[in-house]
Amino acid sequence: MPPAVQTAPTLVFGWGNPSRGDDALGPLFCERIEALRLPGVECLTDFQLQVEHALDLAGRRRVLFVDAALAGAQPQEPAALAAGFHAHTITPARDASFTTHTMSPQSVLQVYRQVLGSDPPPAWLLAIHGIGFELGDGLSAAAAANLDRALAWAEHWLRENGATNAPFQV
Amino acid sequence: MGFELETALPSDQPLQRVAIDPVSRVEGHGKVTLLLDAQNRVHQVRLHIVEFRGFERIAQGRPYWEIPVMVQRLCGICPVSHHLAASKAMDLIVGARQLTPSAEKMRRLMHYGQILQSHALHFFHLSSPDLLFGFDSEVARRNIVGVIADHPDIAKKGVLLRKYGQEVIRHTAGKRVHGTGSVPGGVNKSLSAEDRAAMRGEIEQIVLWCREAVELIKRLHLHNRALYDGFGAFRSNIMGLVAPDGALDLYHGALRVRDADGNIVLDQADYQGYETLLTEEVKPWSYMKFPYLTALGPQLGWYKVGPLARIQNCDYIPTPHAEAERREFCDHAGGKPFAGTLGYHWARMVEMLFAAESIERILADDDLEGRELTVQGERRREGVGVIEAPRGTLIHHYRVGDNDLVTMANLIVSTTHNNQAMNTAVREVAKQYLDGREITEGLLNHIEVAIRAYDPCLSCATHALGQMPLEVLLADADGNTLDYVLRDHEHTIRRPPAPAGGIAL
Predict the structure, then answer these.
(1) Buried-most residue among A18, B28, B101, B111 (CB within 10 A)?
(2) Statement to judge: residues B406 and B437 lie in one domain
(3) Does the residue B344 lie in any domain?
(4) Which of B52-56, B158-162, B443-447, B498-502 comes out lowest in average pLDDT?
(5) Dihedral angle over CA of A22, A24, A30, A36, nearest 10
(6) CB within 8 Å: A68 and B162
(7) What span, in angstroms and rounded, lies between the C-alpha atoms of B463 and A68?
(8) Do residues A25 and A66 make contact, with C-beta atoms less than 8 angstroms apart?
(9) Contacts B488 to A, Cβ<8 Å
């Protein structure tokens, strides 16, 4: 299903609930990137990833998924821990969830493959570390600092405008 | 007094513990714990789900008119359900006892768009892989080969059905995420002729796909009746809203309860009195409460909600194709409420068809383009709004002071209503598939399949990355870890060192 209008080659898709503390990192990242008005970059946000977002990937050269990550929840390189974010390439995979209330970006890529019958564009996942996710809370100071570092670093990559598909190097 | 297998009885044998931790989100935390003896016989089964918290706190002190929009932040999956339930409660606050025809039809259209997209997501994305490819049953795999061949484009239809539902929401609520269409006393916009024509242009295809979806789940079910009828089967009451004439109505009505034999034990009960009708029991081992019908008590008064309850609770469905499918389902059940957990899937598709037919019917109504959008009446201090959300009955209750600020909020979400039913389903599956066997990934997946049928809401809308979807800890009664397994998104099994202190059970 090709998109009807001209599609920006780079999609930045951030998701999270702006009312749940550091869960707002994904949408805030998109808001800040959008303000830069980078050529060839489009930003989309939603509360949660869902199957129809696979259609938003059509016609892209690369996709950057952005979400909050619970700091320390996954084994990480010391450099990533110090930077407050980490990133890596992702490939299609079906979720193992038992609920529609969570969906991974890998699963969105899998839906793309199922629905459009071809491989999705190269995709990366940028996870910005957060510490507090209570309903009604604002962004923590630590998450705000991590967001600044992630933005500074991602802006450089995005300005390359797809010149390289190399994964992020922290 | 508890239920069978809720709490282990005294045993002279050492017991092992198994923890399944499929979704370890920051707040939404679902976990199943099994207490086994040395022969792997089940002694205790509990489903732990953390109830969402915090909304009541942040609602207090907010102006009542903000609540229908604000409450959508609770859930990224069914924000429209919260939007409408809160609006219905606030209708009473502003004295709007009867909405204008345009307002009610806009809300109904929005609601059926939500039902359509939510049910499509659940069936096509979450459940159909299990149902099509089987979950540890070679017999099932052989039987469904022909079904798969007939539905090569199932994933695509699922996405497009959901996309259509999202478009209905966008046109009625103003935008796809966090719409503002419903307000206390009515709606703030009617439908444009252009938007209405766009939706009407596609609805015939949508209804057709929904009919095919019912056929698909029906074939799957009937191809393996023993599995589908018996999996996680248990008797219970069923509860939901029905219209005054007993018709299925997911937007508005009064409460009806049937017992496990299908007899009506409560009918046309005004939900404004839900606090008298229902009691929420607290159990020391669970964060989520256990509601029951006060008149019947905790042992006999618990119930199921959601699609399986609703299509069997009503007297009829007021759209032709869905009604024909409901009759076929009820005939299959044999005159009593169907007890099998996998019946939720069949019932959910009947409801999806009902939603599509309802959208088609409402779109034909010129009131959607009307100009009279809101009404007001005598101001009140308290209101209860109830709606049948995709997963079941959703209750919003507010009190508002003379200064227009909310002083009290109480919500009972569908997953809470289903808490005892889900626990019972997991126990039945554990008895059926785990008792006396080695613990394997396939067997554990049967428990996930049972939970998945209910599509529980796990503390909506928080989902930070970084945790594994499936986590299993096996330990003995002394807390010594015997095994620890993580399963990632690709279903790859890893056995890293167990976390210090294990998983709290």
Answers:
(1) B111
(2) no
(3) yes
(4) B498-502
(5) -70
(6) no
(7) 8
(8) yes
(9) 96
Q: What is the pLDDT of residues A16-72, one digit of tens each?
A: 888 888 989 999 999 999 999 999 999 999 888 888 899 899 999 999 999 988 765
Contacts of A128 in chain B (CB under 8 A): none
User: Final residue of a domain: which of B362, B389, B416?
Assistant: B416
Q: What is the pLDDT of residue A52?
A: 85
Tell which of B57, B116, B159, B449 to mutate to test the A interface (max A CBs under 10 Å): B159
The residue with greater pLDDT, B329 or B495, is B329
Predicted complex ipTM exceeds 0.85: no
Q: How many residues does chain A have?
A: 170
Q: Measure the CA–CA gap between B19 and B426, rounded to whole angstroms.
A: 13
B14 and B36 Cβ atoms separated by less than 8 Å: no
Nearest to B465 among A48, A127, A135 (CB): A127
Q: State the distance between the two ends of chain B, measured CA to CA, in whole angstroms.
A: 20
Kindly state the tokens that stand for A60. Answer: 């892209």
pLDDT band at B471 (very low <50, low <70, confident <90, very high): low
Domain residues for B106? 55-416
Kindly report the pTM of this predicted structure.
0.85
Domains in chain A with CATH codes:
10-159 (3.40.50.1450)
Q: What total number of domains does chain B contain?
A: 2
Structure tokens of B264? 């009506």
Q: Are B345 and B306 in contact (CB under 8 A)?
A: no
Q: What are phi and psi of B491, to 5 degrees?
A: 65, 20
Confidence tier at B489 by pLDDT (50, 70, 90): very low
Q: Same domain for B265 and B120? A: yes
**A-interface mutation test, from B23, B26, B62, B485, most A Cβ less than 10 A away:** B26
Nearest to A41 by CA among A170, A169, A151: A151
